[in-house]
Amino acid sequence: MPYIDHARKELRLKIVYYGPGLGGKTSNLEYIHKHTRPERRGKLVALNTEAERTLFFDLLPVEIGRYKDYQVRVHLCTVPGQIAYDRTRQLVLRHVDGVVFVVDSQPARLRENHESMRNLEANLRLQGDDPAKMPLVVQFNKRDLAGPGGIEASREALGIPPGVLQIIASAGRGEGVFETLKAILKECLAVVEEPSRAPPGHSPSIVPGQRVSMFPEATAGTPGSENSGMLVIATLPKLPRL
C-alpha cells in the first residue's frame, strides 16, 4: 500500500519493473533517470549480478505534480530476471504499489516471458497480494526486434487480455518509456481510496475494484472489458485532472 508522510506532505509510490532477464527493465530506468531533471531525481543505484543489474532511484514526476495537496514521490525499481535470483526479486517486490511487466517481444524469448509472468504471480501471492488487484501495465519492449506480427503473437501466446493496459516500446531508443511510466502512475492513483479509510500513518489503500487481469484464474467470473485498443484502462474510476 502507498505510504503517506503527513509531515512532509508526500504520497510515496513504489513501482517495480518486472520481466525476463535482459528484457529491457534496466533500459527503462536508465532512460527515465537520464532524461529527468537532476533536482527531480535521486541517485541511480545499481546492484550488479553476474548477468544484469538491479536498479532503483527516487523520482518526483513533473507530469503528476501534487495529488490532493500531497507531493507524489515515486520509488522506481527493477528486479533481476534470472531464475537464480528469485529471493532478490521477492525482496524488491515487497510493499509494491504497481508493476510494469516488461515483455521481451523477440519470438525466441516467449518461454522466458511466460516463466517470468508466472513467477510474478507466485511472488505476489507469496507476500499476500492478489495479482488480479495489483495496478499493472504491460510493456511490449524491443518492438524493432519483434518481427512481423511479433507483438500480436506475443500477446496471444502469453494470454494477455485486451483490457490489461498495454504499451508498445523500444526502451533502448526511449520509445514508449515515459508513456509506460505515466500509465502505471495513473493506474495507481486512479484506485486510491478515501484518506479517512486508511490505516494510521499510511496513505489511502489500493481499492480492489473490478479489473481485467493477466491472471484469469484469480478472477474467475469477473466481467472483462469489451475495449480492444492498445491503451486501455478497464473499469477504473475517472482519473482526476492533475
Structure commentary:
This protein has 242 residues and is of the alpha/beta class. It has a single domain, classed as 3-Layer(aba) Sandwich (Rossmann fold). Helix content is 24%, strand content 21%. Strands 1, 2, 3, 4, 5, 6, 7, 8 and 9 form a nine-stranded mixed β-sheet that branches. Strand 1 and strand 2 form a beta hairpin. The longest helix has 17 residues. It is globular, with a radius of gyration of 17 Å. The protein starts with a strand and ends in a 52-residue tail after the last helix.
Short recap of the structure:
This protein has 242 residues and is α/β, with parallel strands linked by helices. It is 24% helix and 21% strand. Mean pLDDT is 79; it is low at 194-211 and 218-242.
Shape: globular
Distance between the termini: 21 Å
CATH architecture descriptor: 3-Layer(aba) Sandwich
CATH superfamily heading: P-loop containing nucleotide triphosphate hydrolases
Coarse structural class: alpha/beta
Task: Break the fold down into its secondary structure elements and pairings.
Blueprint: E1 3-5, E2 10-18, H1 25-34, E3 45-48, E4 53-59, E5 66-67, E6 70-78, H2 86-93, E7 98-104, H3 110-126, E8 136-141, H4 150-158, E9 166-168, H5 177-190
Parallel strand pairs: 2-6, 2-7, 7-8, 8-9
Antiparallel strand pairs: 1-2, 3-4, 4-6, 5-6
